[in-house]
Amino acid sequence: MPGLLPSRRISIQGSLIALAALFLGLYATALTISPAVRFQAGEFTYRWDHWLGYIVWLGVFIAIQYQTKKQLPKADPFLIPIVAVISGWGLLTIWRLMPTFGARQTLWLAIAATVIIAGLQLPNHLVFLRRYKYLWLTGGLVLTALTLLFGTNPATVTGPRLWLGCCDIYFQPSEPLKLLLIIYLAAYLADRLPLANKLLPLLVPTVIVSGFTLLLLIVQRDLGTATIFLYLYTAILYVATGRKRIVFVSILILVLAGTVGYFFIDIIRLRVEAWINPGLDPSGSSYQIIQSLIAVANGGVLGRGPGLGSPSFVPVQHSDFIFAAIAEEMGLVGSLAMLMLFALLINRGLVIALRSTDGFRSYLAAGLTAYLVGQSVLIIGGNLRMLPLTGVTLPFVAYGGSSLVTAFISVLILIHISHHAESRPGQRNNWRPYLHLGVTLYSALIILSLLSGWWAYFQSDNLLTRTDNPRRALSDRFVLRGSFLDRHSDPIVSSQGEPGSYFRQSIHPSLTPIIGYSHPIYGQSGLEATLDGFLRGLEGNPKEIVWWNNLLYGQPPAGLDVRLSVDTNLQYKAHDLLHDKTAALVLLNAKNGEILALASYPTFDANQLDELWPELIEDPLSPLLNRATLGRYPPGSALGPLLLAASYTETGLPTLPESLSYQYGNHYLECAVSPIQPNWGNSIAGGCPAAQMVLGQALGTDQLFTYFNNLGLFDQVPFDLRTTKPAMPQTITISEGAYLGLTDLEVSPLHLARAAAILSSGGIMPAPRLSLAYKSPGLGWVKLPAHQEPLRVLEVEKVDAAVTTIAMGDQSIWQSVATAPTGETTAVTWYMAGTLPDRDGNQLTLVLLLEENDPMTATVIGRTILQAALHP
Fold it and tell me: Which among 59, 549, 624, 735 is least surrounded, fewest beta carbons within 10 Å?
């Protein structure tokens, strides 16, 4: 800011540092009380340790302010405040994430501040940097080369050995090497460029030196730093020469190097694939980027609040992914604020470069600005999936002593250059390359801002509802999740424990196929997944309450209870009869579609998921599969009662065949129960295939196809649980097999129960449902809508005639039992039964499937459960 008096500059700098101290003080206070906000009524301990970092930070910048006033009063008044905010924000974030690393970063901050305070007393002309350029670069290369012999990796045994040191004190030579390369290039070009007649001979030494540096870094497998070096080389050369071909050649080299690396270097291939398509391996090579994006989405617009997010789910969140951690807790607003600070750094750095009196200082200021902001773009771009992950640090913010000291020295040099420029102001004639550099860096920050908004707002719901988002399960530990109640309002599943340690407890494990599970590792299934919004309180509560809880606590409000249609007494009856079978059962109200019992066996106990999971996923009987909704079986002769109802005409039924068995291919199909007196009622109730064949032939393939379609046998059943989607043929291709229920069609027990309900409801097919209502804090029980409207499929007269034919005497019920082959020697058994349409009280329909050929057992079990429902 030309024309300002030194005293005014120092005053502006001091005021801005005071504002930074206020912001960080409030941030530290929020971190302190965050446990009280998160645990609310539970036991908690306030956080205090990060205040050590704040006090050291405050002392550091008070000292820097004092030394700047004393030594360089004409320096740019904005540089130090920008660095103060960014570094303090990063320091407190590291303390919040990993206090041990926060203490180390505080020590490194003190060391960096000592360097900058001492450096403020250096000669302002910086001639020593220019004069000994070869010595500086050679020293940096030697230190970097030593890592090939004595290098170590303090984090992992197998990772790149890029550090020197021991005893928990490590130094990464490639960090100061970036600074030394910038100094070398700025000094070399400032000395030689005015004397050079041709550009190529001038650049040969720089190409050799930079090429050797890149080769050394590639051998080290420090590919992120190698990318930064190529970028810095290009930026400084372009600023100094203004030759655009340098940029194009560098981009070409980078693309070629990336292509070669993709095919020959595993780590590059994995990172590029994770960048292009993270969905390929979300739990492996793409885990970091997926969790980073989920963290950004979880922050939303305003953030979860300091200390209230869950950034620990992102690997190396204190280093490579610290921007994602900040975005989660400070939201899109915090992300944009961080990017704005780097945008201000571009402005101040390039203004200093343009006002410098000579080429060396100008190139040096531009190079340092390009380094600090360009590296930030590279790592933030990796966090937001703008670029592949590189593993470089976020200057001033991420954990890393070498990076922090190098960044502070870079700012020290910029301060010296700005003071010199104000003492002897100059003006660069060739300003266009500086403008182009600034536009490039600003454009990158704008793209990052747009991407932050894209992931935090527009893609937030898609990311947060992913099954691999562990934050949902963590929230369930702190916020009471809604309970499931049966139709009599008795609890089925509820959350137990205290805030911070809530856990899900199933009171009726036999209902696991319906309820499913909500687990921090294994995700969600069943109603726990489909009704998650109500159970979390995100649905059913007023939007302002959800918004206020997210703003104040970073958590949703308490979850809402959900009442289901199931009758636990009937569910227990089904369990007693089926627990040792491979079977599925659906019992529903044929009028309103309410599911009274739904069973699938073998099953599992959700209370023991941690102990049983390895066995469950390896079990050949697939206990995790809900056979009632997701199983697919040939219906076989179970379609007989439905075809009987559709076949009734004014002239009655076709002639019953003499032989009730049927030869179909290699299968000799027989009645499940041979009728004592062959007639249509006994033949259909006993599952006789030849009788069903005659009915199918009477309808014809076209009418049969339309009928099956109207019964929803080709559709995915709209339901509270996941359901199977049968493959819908364009037409019935094998008429014989279709008449027998053996080709072109596989259904779940739920499909068949919905279709069979027309026999008990007078031809109307209901919409199955499990969830009846949720309990609103202000409105009480609020009824949940049905998934679809009931549909009339057949006329009442046809249904009455059919069920009268297969009715069980004076018991007011109809039934049928059938088998269907599933292989050369295997078959399934279907049992269907229901009440007559004119029965007083509820109209019920039951469908039972046994994965074995046992009509007698199926009949006994099915009738027992139906009688229990009719006579509780």
Answer: 59
Q: How far is CA 205 from CA 194, 326, 717, in A?
A: 16, 42, 73
Q: How far apart are CA 185 and CA 191, in angstroms?
A: 10
Q: Cα dist. 7→74, 355, 356 in Å?
A: 8, 20, 21
Q: Which two tokens stand for residue 246?
A: 């340098």
Q: Which two tokens stand for residue 460?
A: 């937030």
Of the candidates 337, 379, 353, the one whose C-alpha atom is nearest the C-alpha of residue 437 is 353
What is the SS3 string spanning 749-760? HHHHHHHHHHHC
Strand pairing report for 583-589 and 844-850: antiparallel
pLDDT tens-digit profile of 439-475?
Answer: 999 999 999 999 999 999 999 989 988 878 888 878 8
> How far, in Å, CA of 175 to CA of 319, rounded?
15
Q: How far apart are CA 747 and CA 495, in angstroms?
A: 35
* Cβ atoms 347, 418 nearer than 8 A: no
CB atoms within 10 A of CB 247: 16
Its sign, for the CA torsion 628, 632, 633, 638, is: positive
**C-alpha to C-alpha distance for 18 and 338, rounded to whole angstroms:** 18
Count of alpha carbons within 13 angstroms of residue 673, beta-carbon side: 24
- Dihedral angle at the C-alpha atoms of 31, 379, 393, 348, nearest 10 degrees? -90
Please return the burial class of 699, using the count of CB atoms within 10 Å of its CB with bins 0-12, 13-18 and 19+. middle
Condensed to tens digits (0 to 9), the pLDDT of residues 108-122 reads 999 999 999 999 988
Backbone dihedral region of 456: left (phi > 0), alpha (psi from -120 to 50 degrees) or beta?
alpha
State the Cα–Cα distance between residues 94 and 28, nearest whole angstrom: 12
pTM of the model: 0.79
3-state secondary structure 62-86: HHHHHHHHHHCCCCCCCHHHHHHHH
Q: How far is CA 307 from CA 31, 33, 209, in A?
A: 5, 9, 46
Structure tokens at 479: 């916020």
Distance of alpha carbon 91 from alpha carbon 53, whole angstroms: 7
**Strand pairing class (771-776; 813-821):** unpaired
Phi first, then psi: what are they for 563, rounded to 5°? -100, 135
Amino acid type, 746: E
Q: Tokens for 210, please give them.
A: 């930079």
Give residue for tokens 């060396």: 360
What confidence category does residue 683 fall into, taking pLDDT thresholds of 50, 70 and 90? very high
- 215: exposed, middle or buried (Cβ count in 10 Å: 0-12, 13-18, 19+): exposed
**How far is residue 47's CA from residue 34's CA, in Å, rounded to a whole number?**
8
DSSP 594: B
Distances (CA, A) of 528 to 123, 587, 861: 68, 21, 29
Residue 3 reports pLDDT greater than 70: no
Question: What number is the average pLDDT over the span 657-670?
Answer: 90
300 near 308, Cβ under 8 Å? no
* Cα–Cα dist 391/80, whole Å: 27
Pairwise CA distance, residues 75 & 719, whole Å: 69
Residue 40 CB coordination number (10 Å): 14
Q: How far apart are CA 606 and CA 515, in angstroms?
A: 9
- Give the long-range contacts of residues 423-430, CB within 8 A, separation 24 or more: 423/74, 423/124, 424/357, 425/2, 425/355, 425/357, 426/355, 426/356, 426/357, 426/358, 427/354, 427/355, 428/353, 428/354, 428/356, 428/362, 430/242
CA distance readout (Å), 574 to 114, 117, 173, 585, 638? 76, 79, 70, 8, 21
Contact 604, 516 (CB under 8 A): no
Q: How many Å apart are CA 524 and CA 513, to the nearest integer?
A: 12
